């Protein structure tokens, strides 16, 4: 149609990345995407030590009318520079709450530190959860760290309020971020997700194996769960089990899929 034609002209030229005009263009397209229902959540299963599906992580996808499926790395960073990230975040929570019943497991949503900076974030989240009528203990908030999270009073109050609501909080990409160890001191949380860069080299890097073991030890002491992400081989899974991880996620076990294509027999 006419709209798609307009979009085609300047759509996502990679040479324009980092360019201010490109940023504004993506922002405008994203606002349109929200209105025109171009966003989707794909779900990736997380397995417990018993190898049963214990939760799913919701991962945002953008089905652009011209560009096709756009991964979040191409637009989350731009959304984080404005109120767009809050709008996207709201859409994600509403969609995930609606999908919870079908999934039959708890669901983890990704939340940017930029959202936690808003003083009414937890209150709005609580309102959405109440409106959806879901059990709040079935929603997990993963704090990603694409932008460094300041362990400030507002962030801390939001995380406390989220846990008071009954939701669980996970620290995402643990070990890869700007301030992982500081988070351990500054925040109360329920789950650590070991960054997949440590999992990737588990076979041949002794230091990475030591770090994974140390993170598991810390998690045990704190009595929080450890999810290993990016598990791509059986050997990695074996090493992670031995190290004491409590849950596993990765292409070896299951890829992110649209809800309609997900095999949810194990969760029924
Ligand atoms: P993340 O939260 O660390 O999500 C895991 C990413 O690793 C996903 O990429 C997933 O598809 C990918 N992955 C899963 N298993 C494997 C594996 O075995 N090997 C490899 N190499 N990769 C694997 P995706 O979906 O492209 O998302 C990238 C990032 O975008 C996420 O990283 C998260 O930080 C961000 N993101 C995704 N959805 C949202 C959202 O709704 N809100 C926000 N704020 N950020 C989101
Ligand atoms: Ca995540
Ligand atoms: Ca992660
Ligand atoms: Ca990440």
Automatic annotation (TrEMBL):
Q: What is the lineage of its organism?
A: Bacteria, Pseudomonadati, Pseudomonadota, Alphaproteobacteria, Hyphomicrobiales
Q: Which UniProt keywords apply?
A: Membrane, Transmembrane, Transmembrane helix
Its protein name is: Diguanylate cyclase
Residue window of the full protein shown: 227 to 494 of 494
Residue stretches making up the EAL domain: 23-268
| Entry annotated with the keyword Cell membrane | no
